[in-house]
Each structure stands twice: as structure tokens, then as C-alpha cells.
Amino acid sequence: MKDNIRIEPKWDKSKEEIWSDHFEKMTSTAPVNREALHKGMFSGRAIYYTAAAAIIVLMLVPMVYTRNISAQRGEHVTIELPDGSTACLNAQSEISYKPLLWYLKRDIRMEGEAYFSVEKGSRFSVKSENGSVTVLGTKFNVKSRYDIFEVSCITGKVAVKSELDKDLKEGVLIEGGEGVSFSENAAMKRVSGETNENRTSWMDYNFVFTGAPLNQVLGEISRQYNIDIVYDEAEEYLYTGKFSRDVPVEQVLEIVTMPFSLKIVKDENGYKIIK
Questions:
Q1: Residue 196 and residue 64 share a domain
Q2: Which among 134, 148, 252, 154 is positioned nearest to 198, based on CA atoms?
Q3: What is the predicted pLDDT for the residue at 167?
């Protein structure tokens, strides 16, 4: 008898409504947050570009980082380079080089006058507006001022090339005890012996001139004593002589101007040299 009993369930909703209310949400796809996705992609790209920029900067730093050293008027400055080589700068001179690339390329840019003592190793180059010097290991002096380029080799050998002598395309090789000089519109001159040695006397604050234009001599006095000297004389005087910086500047000016009967006038700005 029990097998004949059936109970019919009573539903308040149709099967479509029940599906919609309870199961449809379980199978539907959640909506995509496109704004968050876009931000995530942008953030990833930003990290990539930042890393790439950092790598580029690290590669460029050694190429662009330059150390500059200068000696002001009235002073001499000696520095030690990364490999133990040294450079002594005369007054009102400057050099620059790239420390992070030094052991790949020992290159120096200079203007003024400097004495170099170079440790043996790879090629060592000194470049200026008026010319360049290339060595392996030696001691030498370089002067590049105005339209003058002078190189004096003390020991070893140096190769010299001047921008003031366009005909000398291959340059010239000089050895210890020899020197060369170039000036605009003039042929190259070789010097040796005492004349060559005198070119480095400035390191001991002694200054020797042989047939030097007076304006150059006065320019050197101005640099060594840190004073202003006005000299407008059109006549070209050539001076031969020497002086020491231990001597007071007014006495030095008298020594230099006396052979040409020139007068020294002192004012608040320095000195004037007149006829």
C-alpha cells in the first residue's frame, strides 16, 4: 500500500525562474576590469623603460664624466693620474680627462703649459688646440698658448703633430734632450741642449726667454704674479733674458722693459707699460 503513495512537490516558481535565481550567476563570466588591466600594462611598460634608461645611463656615464683640473694665475698645480702618471700645470693652464675610461684610453685635453711624467703602458696622448703629443712612457713638457706650440722631450720618445703646420702631415718624432716649436706662418724649429732644458725651468719658478716677443714675456709675468699688465705698444720688441719669481714683480718689470726704454706706470688695476 505504501508503494502506491506519491507526493507531488509544490513549486512556487517555474524551473526557468529557479535556474535564473540560483544557478545562472555561478556559470556567468565575471566582468573584466579594463581600467585595472590597462594600468597594469602601463606599469609593466614603465618598469621596462626605466630599466632600459638606467642601462643606457650606466653605459654613457664613463663616456661623459670628465675631470677638469686647472691652475689659476699665480699658482702651479701637480696631480696624479689614475695609473700613477703625473701632470704639473703651469699658471693659468688646465687639463681634462675621463677617469672611468682611463685604462682603455689614456687621453688628456690641455691648454696652457704642463709637464708630464708618464708611466709605461698603453698609448698616452695629450691634445690641444694647436697640436698633439703621443707617447708610451716618458717625461715631456707641452706648451700651447695663442699661436705657439712647443714640445720638449726630457726622456724617452714622443711623436708630435701640430695644427699650425699643415705641411707636416705625418708629424715628427723627437727623443730625450730634443724639442720642437711651431708658430703660425712659420716653419718648425728644432732645439736641443740648454735651450731645450730651459723650457722646463718654470717648474722651479725660473723663466728664460730667447728672442721672445715682449708681449709674451709680459703675459708670463702676469700669469706668474697674478697681476694685470696693459701693453699696447705696436712695435715688436724681442726679449732675451731670464728672471725668477722670487724677485718682486716691479723689479722684474724693470729688468724686462729697461732694454727698450719703456716706462712702468702703476695704477689701481695693475701696471701699464708705455713708451
A1: yes
A2: 154
A3: 78
- pLDDT tens readout for residues 138-168: 999 999 998 899 999 999 999 999 999 877 7
Domain for residue 137, yes or no? yes
User: Looking at the structure, do residues 191 and 79 belong to the same domain, yes or no?
Assistant: yes
User: What is the domain range of residue 140?
Assistant: 60-200
DSSP track, 41-83 = HHHHHHHHHHHHHHHHHHHHHHHH--EEEEE-TT--EEEE-TT
Total number of domains constituting the chain: 2
CA-based nearest residue to 152, from 166, 144, 213: 144
Looking at the fold, whether 196 and 222 belong to one and the same domain comes out as no
Q: Are residues 155 and 263 in the same domain?
A: no
- Within 8 A by CB and 6+ apart from 226, the residues are 72, 73, 74, 75, 91
pTM for the whole thing? 0.76
Per-residue pLDDT tens for 16-36? 555 455 545 544 455 555 655
